[in-house]
Design a protein that fits this description.
Blueprint: E1 3-6, H1 12-21, E2 25-29, H2 39-48, E3 55-59, H3 64-72, E4 78-81, H4 87-94, E5 100-104, E6 117-120, E7 143-145, H5 154-161, E8 165-168, E9 173-174, E10 177-178, H6 180-192
Parallel strand pairs: 1-2, 1-8, 2-3, 3-4, 4-5, 5-6, 6-7, 7-8
Antiparallel strand pairs: 9-10
């Protein structure tokens, strides 16, 4: 069974939709962008989120102390590094027993090897599609794929790459708002693959 992360959660309604669909991971974005939330909002949403769904904090070149503060608050249980963080950052965070997802682009042949999970994304969460047919990835860690995935292309991506997880944000939105029906449909579909 392929697992799924629904990212970019911002509202109580987003949490209700995720609780109902029950993906394997839920993502809060602390980096600049349309889906950015602050720690106060993340704490409020985490309290409402099903306790069995781990929450991932997404950061881009954030200072280590800041990431540790957010992790220590209880808002997140994993950290996703989506910038140019180095191997030392991964090691420091892992020393605090924090599972780390390290993002890399298709052009990078050697992603950070010490992260707990590796995520292939086409850009910086910008919704760019990856040509899955041209990608060949071999990793020891579980692989997560992202990049303009939606109900129409997720099956092809999974059957081509065989990732452990898929990550969706915009692909489960309608008019820039998380769509409970889209979330439910794609979680059910992915869990069947």
């Amino acid at each position: 069974m392929t697992k799924i992360k629904i990212c970019g959660l911002m509202t109580v309604d987003d949490i209700k939709a995720v609780n109902q669909a029950h993906p394997d991971l839920a993502g809060f974005i602390f980096a600049n962008g349309r889906h950015q939330i602050d720690l106060i909002t993340a704490l409020k949403l985490r309290k409402l989120l099903d306790p069995t769904i781990p929450s991932v904090g997404v950061f881009v070149n954030e200072p280590i102390d800041s990431m540790l503060k957010i992790y220590d608050s209880g808002a997140i249980s994993m950290i996703q590094l989506h910038g140019q963080e180095d191997e030392n950052t991964v090691k420091v965070l892992q020393a605090h027993q924090i599972p780390i997802i390290n993002v890399f682009k298709p052009s990078q042949n050697n992603p950070q090897a010490n992260a707990d999970y590796l995520m292939l994304d086409s850009g910086s969460g910008n919704g760019m599609t990856v040509d899955w047919q041209k990608i060949r990835i071999e990793t020891k860690q579980p692989l997560i794929i992202a990049g303009a995935l939606d109900i129409n292309n997720v099956t092809t991506a999974i059957k081509t790459i065989h990732p452990a997880y898929v990550d969706l944000s915009r692909g489960v939105e309608t008019n820039n708002v998380k769509d409970p029906q889209k979330i439910s449909k794609i979680v059910t579909l992915v869990h069947q693959l």
